[in-house]
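The freezer alarm interrupted the setup, so I double-checked each line after restarting. Inputs confirmed:
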Amino acid sequence: MKNNSATGSLELPNLNRQPFESRSLKSVLLSSITVTAALLACIPLFSVLIMLLYRGGKRLSLELFYALPPTAFETGGGFGNAIAGTLFMVGIAALISIPFGVLAAIYMAELGPDSKMAETARFCAKTMTGLPSILAGVFAYAAVVLVMGHYSSWAGGIALSLLMIPVVMLTAEEAIKMVPNPMKEAAYGMGCTPSQSMVKIILPVAMPGIITGVVLAVARAAGETAPLLFTALFSDYWLQPNEPTASLAVLIYNYSGMPFENQVELAWAASLILVLMVFVLNIVSRAIGERTK
Amino acid sequence: MANDQQSVWEGADTLSKPATSGDKLFDRLFRGLTYTFTLATVLLLAYILYEICGKALPAISKLGFSYLYSTTWDVNAQHFGILPEIWGTLYSSLLALILGGFFGITIAVFLTQDFLPHKVQVVLKNIIELLAAIPSVVYGLWGIYVLIPLIRPLADYLHAHFGWIPFFSTSLSGPGMFPAALVLAIMILPTVAAISQDAFLAIPHKTKEAAYGMGTTRWEAILRVLLPTASGGIFGALVLGFGRALGETMALAMLVGNANQISLSVFSPADTLAALLALNFPEASDYEISVLMYAAVILLLITLLVNVAGAVIIAKTNSGGKK
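Predicted 3D structure, all chains:
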């Protein structure tokens, strides 16, 4: 008491935590809502994975990989042509978008970083990442299908490349910017031209980051359906680049609404394989990204 | 003299030397090449816009603005209108934004405000990111065979007991707005969560410590200090999530029911712009293609507007934070 009067009549509130005060209760309540929400958000992922393993796994066999899709009342069958089609079209898209994206990224990050052109290109790339994927299909339909006069795997590949280019470009730009400045300066100090330091020093150092971006872009393209719907269409036969081409994603879409049990099962099996492909690519890109840290 | 210098170059233990004319030529070419592809990016976007708008021109000149407020889509009568699709696109995205936004922001709080040990945090973060990796067509399949049967009892209950509320005024007969919006919410949740996390992490630690120093509870600090501080970034995250939802195609084409109608009820089937394109393009005639391109232009305009707004908001708040 005497101490108190010495410091003025300061009445300290009770500083112990009071678990039943309304403020504490409110905090506990909000915390539990948060935990519940986080757990709820995980349910869809697990539900999708379990259903894929359960319904798709039932159908998993070697036949899926070498057989052609069955007709309406047929049993069995597979989707070897769709796997081949997906790989082929994603391959075309990668061949277009990797050089395109990396070269533009080199300019934006290093050779002309603050130029008007770089700013404009960066803005365009960011705009393209936000475009709905179906518009890539609409564009490829107008620019390729209408010009060639028929659906083809080329149109599908080009539509997919439109989605990959901005992803490759923006991640490659970041990766190149992350290369430490002293390394670049050392190269210049040795008399390298900007291009030489780029090719010999900066690109090798930035390579893991660039590959991470490329793999992510490939994973995204592999799962895309909308750009392929009316560019590559679908086919029940083996891959012929100039003809309509089957893909896993469009197969899932086409078969999901069919009234035949066999086709629905195939759609689940195709989903399982597609998701496995996408997850493996994601894990690979993460592993490369982690190693560089 | 010249010989002397020669010997200096050869004798020195160094890699450095002036660029030869070959090096200079290579430098020119390489710079030219990178410049060409940078320019090509700009031209590519311009070409995309030109191609889509150009093909839409016949329909735009013939249908004019009546296309935007007409509600019938009749191929035989050549009568086209996309008001129901515009409504469906905005309504489904808005529902998805409310759901996905709530969960996304809550998860961002959960992952950044020291609720969990670091290792668990990383695992949960990766799980949320994997949600984004699943192709939308797989979500569509899951929606048809798992989600719709699962929510049907709930929908029936709500319709039976709360049917007087306009949102529940019809029963769920299979595909419809609600399952589509749910799947859409799952798909935009990772985007919202990731960008909101960045916004929370950008808050200086001192701000939080000052709040705690004033004796706030954890949630008083979050609700009254941290959320308002991060609100700019979170708002940007919501706008970008909204942009994603607007353009999503497959899950909606499979789940929304493709009915050309406008209804407030979340259980009635509807249609969206992207789903309209996906379903009608493969079998369209020449003029109908042009009509569909017109719809694509509208979709393009809406998403561009929303995305640019989101990017500007995020850029503004980020630069504001640095000052």
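Quick read of the result. The radius of gyration of chain A is 27 Å.
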